[in-house]
Amino acid sequence: MTDTRTLTPPATATASAGLSIRDAVMELGDGDTRVRALDGVSLDVAPGEFVAIVGPSGSGKSSLLAVAGALATPDSGQVSIHGQDLGQLSRARRADFRLHTIGFVFQSGNLIPALTAADQLRLVNKLAGGPRSFDPTELLAAVGMAGKAKNRPGQLSGGERQRVGIARALVTRPSVLLVDEPTAALDRARSHEVVGLLAEQSREFGVATVMVTHDHGVLEHCDRVLEMTDGRLTASV
Amino acid sequence: MFLALRELTFARGRFGLMGAVVALIAVLMVMLSGLSSGLVNDGVSGLKSLPVTAFAFDEGTKTDNAFSRSVVDSDQLSTWSTQPGIAEATLLGVSLVNATATDGTQVDLSLFGVETDSFLAPAPAEGDGLASPNGIVVSPTAQAEGIELGTTLTLDQLGTELVVVGFTDGQATFGHVDVAYLPLATWQLISSGLAQPGPPTAEQLDAVPTDTASVIALQAADGASLDLKAGDAAAATTTSTLTEAFNASPGYEAETLTLSMIQVFLYAICALVVGAFFTVWTIQRKHEIAVLRAIGASTRYLLRDGLVQAALLLVTFTALGLAAGLGLGSAMPEAMPFALEASPILTAATLTVGLGLVGAAVAIVRISRIDPLDALGGNR
Q1: Is pLDDT of B314 > 90?
Q2: Which residue range forms the structural domain that includes residue B201?
Q3: Does residue A205 belong to the interface with chain B, where contact is any CB pair within 8 Å?
Q4: Which of A155-159, B138-142, B241-245 has the lowest mean pLDDT?
Q5: Please, which residues have CB within 8 angstroms of residue A163's CB and are 6 or more apart in sequence?
Q6: Taking the mean position of all CA atoms in its chain, how far away is CA B151?
Q7: Nearest-angstrom CA–CA distance, B147 and B377
Q8: Is the ipTM, as predicted for this complex, more than 0.85?
Q9: Chain centroid to CA B206: how far?
Q10: Rounded to an integer, what distance in angstroms lies between the CA atom of residue B279 and that of residue B361?
Q11: Cβ A123–B2 below 8 Å, yes or no?
Q12: What DSSP character marks residue B56?
């Protein structure tokens, strides 16, 4: 496995060190059902910054995450992470880039059912060709899950799963953290805990975090809140 | 292997069920293989043990039961003897008879009439070789029926008396009947129907007008390949190689074809069942695989992990099935033709694992078509 970290320029204090999206346009569907999911979206997120994107279903939030996460390529426009233009990466290199440079936190954690909390982290470390001496305890402790390292997802509550999911996303020390509806399955108190943890870890790890959410109750933890409507991004009022 | 192993223990119920099916298939494979080898031994071990390259049957003999149907004479033999590449050629008489031992035990015998000084003459492991006109050398499997050295066997109807003088080295049966070697002249006397009750005498033997036997046994010179067609044309015979000639033994083709067909079906079932299991398993893991791909796991890693998982399952449970099959096989009743031989069992095990892997691979390839985008959103 190649180590893409050596291919990216060293971290600097410029905006390009985090996530940068320029005039991204993406259309989905065919013929009559064709929708402009992203209609000229530009977004810059600096390392350590925690940005929330709110908006109704179908407004293009997921498309923005897909484009920012190198899961989809915009029809036009440019996406760069840590100075690397994603458009210049081949399919296989994109997977490798995601592995090393992007962290994902999915709805309800999306953990692997067969793996214990510690093994979830170990798997990512193995995939990324990380050090053999990798010890998941430290990261699990950072998200308050040190005591449940040996539990499988089935033995964890929704909030706990999400915490493990956050730890898993941070294993490779990514430049960008993309968070998809982290509170969808959580009650108010847990939602605050999880999003608070995300904000804390974003700052701690100096990672540019973008969170897509429906939940207006948790926005107080974010540095910036943007609103997505019909594929356009505007500052929230 | 990291994920593969943990999934195997996590979903041990499901994998255990699948493994049980694989193990049972392996048990069945061992049983069929043992039965197959046993039947082959029972059917043609008498032929297999002969140092023969090919058998020449009389021209146009129907292949089924050709040994007892064919009649060749000494003219055909002398023609074959002069063919290029032939080291040895001799007459072999084959017939099935019923006989009764002095204690009343009834036995069936495949009489193999051979020239006592020819290359077909049996080298006995016990007792003496062929010499006197009434001496026979019998397969040691006949001992199970109480036949010993010195036992006198009286042929039914004819009343000819033959004495067991030796036992062959290893099982020699033909058409599921024990082989009894005897001098060709005695065989000709018996098959001509002129034999009188009591031991065959020199006068009786001299009186036999025929010089025929069933087939000509041919042995090629070292490294020489025989031109069977030219020999057949010259001697008016139809020649089969030793293995081809197995089919001319009673019931051989029907038995082996039936068992082979069952085995082929089992292999197909194995591949399909394993394929179906891994198809369902992969579909169940679809979302999980989408997540792994979104995180950045390479397709190669996921495919390899899936295949390793299938291989572990197949190898482990085939081995268990083999062990169980071997245990069961050694407990088979004596009367059942059953022989456990390493090479067919290993072939069966390899094919079970191999074809199972093919089935699994077809299912696991699905992984490469799972879209990492499915990891986003709540659509499970």
Answers
A1: yes
A2: 60-235
A3: no
A4: B241-245
A5: A143, A144, A145, A194, A197
A6: 31
A7: 82
A8: yes
A9: 40
A10: 9
A11: yes
A12: E
Give the pLDDT mean for A75-93.
Answer: 90
Pairing of strands B215-220, B54-58: antiparallel
Residue-wise pLDDT tens digits, B128-181: 889 888 999 999 989 988 899 999 999 988 899 999 999 999 889 998 899 999
Q: What are phi and psi of B194, to 5 degrees?
A: -90, -5
pLDDT tens profile B325-358: 999 988 888 778 888 888 889 999 999 999 999 9
Name which of A62, A98, A112 is nearest B296 (Cβ-Cβ): A98
Question: Which are the contacts of B161, defined by CB distance < 8 A and separation ≥ 6?
Answer: B134, B152, B153, B154, B155, B197, B198, B199
Residue whose tokens read 């005897």: B182
Identity of the amino acid at B279: T
Q: Which of A49, A28, A46 is nearest to A37 (CA)?
A: A28
Same domain, B126 and B217: yes
Instruction: Look at A112 and B2 and tell me if their CB atoms are within 8 Å.
Output: no
Q: What is the 3-state composition of chain A as percent helix, strand, coil, each rounded to the nearest 5?
A: 40, 25, 35
Residue B22 included in any domain:
yes
* A155: nearest Cα among A181, A197, A192, A117: A117
Residue B40 sits in the same domain as residue B65: no
**Domains contained in chain B, number:** 2
Is the same domain home to B30 and B77?
Answer: no
Give me the amino acid identity at B310: A
> What Cα–Cα distance (Å) separates residue B207 from each residue in B97, B189, B210?
22, 9, 9
From the CA of A97, how many Å to the nearest CA of chain B?
Answer: 7
